[in-house]
Specification:
This protein is of the alpha/beta class. 43% of the residues lie in helices and 11% in strands. It folds into 3 domains: 51 residues; 50 residues; 169 residues, Nucleotidyltransferase, domain 5 (2-Layer Sandwich). It is built from 11 helices and 5 strands. Strand 2 and strand 3 form a beta hairpin.
Length: 331
Amino acid sequence: MTQAQHDISRKLRVLNHAKQSGNVSHTCRYFGISREIFYQWKRAYEKEGEKALINSKPCPANPKLRAPAEVEQKILHLRLTYHLGPARIVWYLKRYHDIKVSSGGLYSVLKRNAMNRLPRNARKRTVLTQRYEKQVRGHHVQVDVKFLDFKAASGEKVRRFQYTAIDDATRIRALRVYEKRSQQNAMDFIDHVVEKFPFRIQTIRTDNGHEFQAKFHWHVEDLGMTHSYIKPGTPRLNGKVERSHLTDKEEFYQLLSYTDDVDLNEKLREWESFYNYHRPHGAHKGRTPYEVLKEKMQASNQNAVDPAGSIEGAPAVKTGAPPYTPSGLPS
């Protein structure tokens, strides 16, 4: 039922009640309205019919106050394609297009286009203001494996394994895909993480999967780091890497069509770069993991080393457009 139909139904119910009871005062007390309002409705209905019972808006719409059409198009694209919440849409528009939109204006756009609610099958994501996290980069690095299932062009099922490492303090990540889930691949991945992360890692934290057992454990210890296991059945203790896997699913894999491993690894490198250097992060209030890393490096008196040059291939912090856009923002 539309709002107009609701207005008509409610007022007709009041008018019919008075007609049947023959007592206007009783009807007004029953429905909680004044006699003056009742007679306004009655006169309007007798003069113009049901359309006169529709509530008028308190003031006429002013198109000049609306967001420009090109801005509205970008907002709807981000909402429809990536299911982003209002806060993240505001961050994206400011970062990549230098467009400042108020939260109220953004909600008006979504409401006007009936997109203020996400689809029922979309998970609700709330940007929290307080989270537990380490303050020193490299103090804890969480490592986990994400199972990937694809369909090849031949229709055959393809299973791959994404090894993920995320720094607790900065949310900088390293990703690699392997054909097998084994200790040998886990050790190879840790070597890659040590080489990639521009800071000393103190502790590697994993679950109790078979790929993280004795050989892996002593390999980590031999590299001068500590390896700790979370308690069985408590994935929340590795919550940041688990949550990042959900982001991978919602913002990367649902937009990806599998062709072969070469293409998969190439796209994954693009996604890793986008996540680290360009994607506004809710935990950092719109800053990227790379920006937080630079701040922490500068705060710890490491200004002698250029922070931007300490990560291989690190781009400028702000660019004109997102480097990773599977569907692409409308220009």
